Amino acid sequence: MRRLVTTFALLPSLLFTSVAQAQELVFGFGHADFLSEQADDGAYLSADYLGTRDWRLLGFDAGLGVTAQVHETGDIFLGGGLQAQRDLGQRWFIEASVMPGAFFEGEKANDLGSTFEIRSLVGIGRELRGGRRLTLAFTHISNASIGDQNPGLNAINLRLHVPLRHRARN
Fold first, then answer.
1. Below-70 pLDDT ranges, the chain
2. pLDDT tens per residue across span 15-42
3. Which domains, ranges and CATH numbers included, belong to the chain?
4. Percent helix, strand, coil in the chain (nearest 5)?
5. What pLDDT was estimated at residue 35?
6. Labelling 133: which of 25, 99, 150, 159 has CA 20 to 30 A away?
Protein backbone atom coordinates (compact mmCIF):
# COMPACT_ATOMS: atom_id res chain seq x y z
CA MET A 1 0.00 0.00 0.00
CA ARG A 2 2.91 2.35 0.72
CA ARG A 3 4.13 1.92 -2.88
CA LEU A 4 0.64 2.80 -4.10
CA VAL A 5 0.52 6.03 -2.07
CA THR A 6 4.10 7.03 -3.04
CA THR A 7 3.46 6.44 -6.75
CA PHE A 8 0.14 8.31 -6.60
CA ALA A 9 1.80 11.27 -4.86
CA LEU A 10 4.32 11.58 -7.71
CA LEU A 11 1.77 11.40 -10.56
CA PRO A 12 0.69 15.05 -10.59
CA SER A 13 4.27 16.25 -11.05
CA LEU A 14 4.89 13.69 -13.80
CA LEU A 15 1.68 14.11 -15.77
CA PHE A 16 0.38 17.58 -15.18
CA THR A 17 3.19 19.90 -16.19
CA SER A 18 0.90 22.51 -17.85
CA VAL A 19 -1.54 22.88 -14.97
CA ALA A 20 -2.20 26.57 -15.65
CA GLN A 21 -3.96 25.76 -18.92
CA ALA A 22 -6.04 22.83 -17.64
CA GLN A 23 -9.70 23.00 -16.90
CA GLU A 24 -9.69 20.53 -14.01
CA LEU A 25 -7.93 17.81 -12.10
CA VAL A 26 -9.91 14.72 -11.17
CA PHE A 27 -8.93 12.41 -8.31
CA GLY A 28 -10.59 9.05 -7.89
CA PHE A 29 -10.71 6.01 -5.66
CA GLY A 30 -12.24 2.76 -6.78
CA HIS A 31 -12.29 -1.00 -7.02
CA ALA A 32 -10.90 -2.90 -10.01
CA ASP A 33 -12.20 -6.28 -11.15
CA PHE A 34 -9.81 -8.11 -13.46
CA LEU A 35 -11.81 -10.38 -15.73
CA SER A 36 -9.32 -13.22 -15.33
CA GLU A 37 -9.81 -15.82 -12.59
CA GLN A 38 -6.12 -15.78 -11.57
CA ALA A 39 -5.89 -11.98 -11.29
CA ASP A 40 -5.87 -10.03 -8.04
CA ASP A 41 -8.76 -7.57 -7.83
CA GLY A 42 -8.47 -4.61 -5.50
CA ALA A 43 -8.48 -0.91 -4.80
CA TYR A 44 -6.90 1.73 -7.00
CA LEU A 45 -6.33 5.47 -7.14
CA SER A 46 -6.64 7.59 -10.26
CA ALA A 47 -5.72 11.08 -11.33
CA ASP A 48 -6.90 12.78 -14.53
CA TYR A 49 -5.93 16.08 -16.09
CA LEU A 50 -8.83 17.28 -18.23
CA GLY A 51 -8.02 20.09 -20.61
CA THR A 52 -10.41 22.74 -21.82
CA ARG A 53 -13.41 21.26 -23.61
CA ASP A 54 -13.65 23.60 -26.57
CA TRP A 55 -15.06 21.22 -29.22
CA ARG A 56 -18.64 20.05 -29.74
CA LEU A 57 -18.99 16.34 -30.48
CA LEU A 58 -22.37 14.57 -30.64
CA GLY A 59 -23.89 17.06 -28.20
CA PHE A 60 -20.95 16.83 -25.77
CA ASP A 61 -18.33 19.44 -24.91
CA ALA A 62 -15.07 17.64 -25.72
CA GLY A 63 -11.34 18.11 -25.29
CA LEU A 64 -8.16 16.24 -24.53
CA GLY A 65 -7.04 14.70 -21.27
CA VAL A 66 -4.61 12.31 -19.63
CA THR A 67 -5.14 9.70 -16.95
CA ALA A 68 -3.16 7.57 -14.53
CA GLN A 69 -4.35 4.65 -12.42
CA VAL A 70 -2.29 2.94 -9.74
CA HIS A 71 -3.62 -0.33 -8.34
CA GLU A 72 -2.83 -1.69 -4.89
CA THR A 73 -1.11 -4.67 -6.56
CA GLY A 74 1.33 -2.29 -8.30
CA ASP A 75 -0.42 -2.26 -11.69
CA ILE A 76 -0.21 1.09 -13.49
CA PHE A 77 -2.17 2.47 -16.44
CA LEU A 78 -1.11 5.71 -18.16
CA GLY A 79 -3.16 7.06 -21.05
CA GLY A 80 -4.37 10.07 -22.94
CA GLY A 81 -7.11 10.88 -25.39
CA LEU A 82 -10.57 12.30 -25.81
CA GLN A 83 -12.74 13.32 -22.85
CA ALA A 84 -16.21 14.82 -22.98
CA GLN A 85 -19.00 16.06 -20.73
CA ARG A 86 -22.61 17.00 -21.21
CA ASP A 87 -24.75 19.11 -18.91
CA LEU A 88 -28.04 17.47 -17.91
CA GLY A 89 -29.40 20.48 -16.02
CA GLN A 90 -29.91 21.20 -12.32
CA ARG A 91 -26.17 20.64 -11.62
CA TRP A 92 -26.14 17.09 -13.06
CA PHE A 93 -23.84 16.01 -15.90
CA ILE A 94 -22.48 12.95 -17.63
CA GLU A 95 -18.86 12.36 -18.57
CA ALA A 96 -17.17 9.98 -20.98
CA SER A 97 -13.67 9.35 -22.23
CA VAL A 98 -11.62 7.07 -24.45
CA MET A 99 -7.93 7.06 -23.60
CA PRO A 100 -5.46 4.67 -25.21
CA GLY A 101 -2.29 4.08 -23.25
CA ALA A 102 0.05 1.65 -21.59
CA PHE A 103 -0.68 -0.89 -18.86
CA PHE A 104 2.13 -2.24 -16.69
CA GLU A 105 1.12 -5.18 -14.53
CA GLY A 106 2.55 -5.35 -11.03
CA GLU A 107 1.78 -9.06 -10.82
CA LYS A 108 2.02 -11.56 -13.67
CA ALA A 109 -1.54 -12.77 -12.92
CA ASN A 110 -2.82 -9.28 -13.82
CA ASP A 111 -1.48 -9.40 -17.40
CA LEU A 112 -4.08 -7.91 -19.78
CA GLY A 113 -2.50 -9.36 -22.93
CA SER A 114 -0.43 -6.42 -24.15
CA THR A 115 1.14 -3.21 -22.93
CA PHE A 116 -1.15 -1.22 -25.26
CA GLU A 117 -4.60 -0.93 -23.69
CA ILE A 118 -7.58 1.42 -24.07
CA ARG A 119 -9.48 2.81 -21.11
CA SER A 120 -13.08 3.84 -21.67
CA LEU A 121 -15.08 5.65 -19.00
CA VAL A 122 -18.68 6.68 -18.51
CA GLY A 123 -19.98 8.43 -15.41
CA ILE A 124 -22.72 10.55 -13.95
CA GLY A 125 -21.97 13.49 -11.71
CA ARG A 126 -23.27 16.39 -9.72
CA GLU A 127 -21.81 19.85 -9.25
CA LEU A 128 -21.12 20.76 -5.62
CA ARG A 129 -20.67 24.17 -4.03
CA GLY A 130 -17.52 26.04 -4.98
CA GLY A 131 -17.31 24.55 -8.48
CA ARG A 132 -16.13 21.12 -7.38
CA ARG A 133 -17.98 18.15 -8.81
CA LEU A 134 -18.42 14.52 -7.82
CA THR A 135 -18.96 11.61 -10.23
CA LEU A 136 -19.60 7.91 -10.02
CA ALA A 137 -17.87 6.34 -13.01
CA PHE A 138 -17.46 2.94 -14.60
CA THR A 139 -14.31 2.14 -16.56
CA HIS A 140 -13.17 -0.69 -18.79
CA ILE A 141 -9.60 -1.36 -19.89
CA SER A 142 -9.09 -3.64 -22.89
CA ASN A 143 -6.66 -4.13 -25.76
CA ALA A 144 -9.54 -4.56 -28.25
CA SER A 145 -8.33 -8.12 -28.97
CA ILE A 146 -5.07 -7.00 -30.58
CA GLY A 147 -3.01 -8.71 -27.85
CA ASP A 148 -2.25 -12.37 -27.21
CA GLN A 149 -5.17 -12.40 -24.81
CA ASN A 150 -7.82 -9.86 -23.80
CA PRO A 151 -9.21 -10.57 -20.32
CA GLY A 152 -10.01 -6.91 -19.64
CA LEU A 153 -10.50 -4.97 -16.43
CA ASN A 154 -13.73 -3.39 -15.16
CA ALA A 155 -13.79 -0.82 -12.38
CA ILE A 156 -16.10 1.48 -10.48
CA ASN A 157 -14.82 4.65 -8.89
CA LEU A 158 -15.82 7.81 -7.10
CA ARG A 159 -14.19 10.89 -8.65
CA LEU A 160 -13.69 14.43 -7.30
CA HIS A 161 -13.32 17.10 -10.02
CA VAL A 162 -11.35 20.16 -8.90
CA PRO A 163 -11.48 23.17 -11.25
CA LEU A 164 -8.24 24.98 -11.95
CA ARG A 165 -9.92 28.16 -13.08
CA HIS A 166 -13.36 29.61 -12.56
CA ARG A 167 -16.07 28.14 -14.77
CA ALA A 168 -19.12 30.19 -15.65
CA ARG A 169 -22.39 28.42 -14.88
CA ASN A 170 -24.94 28.16 -17.69
1. 1-22, 166-170
2. 444 443 459 999 999 999 998 888 889 9
3. 23-40+50-62+76-158+166-170 (2.40.160)
4. 15, 60, 30
5. 86
6. 99
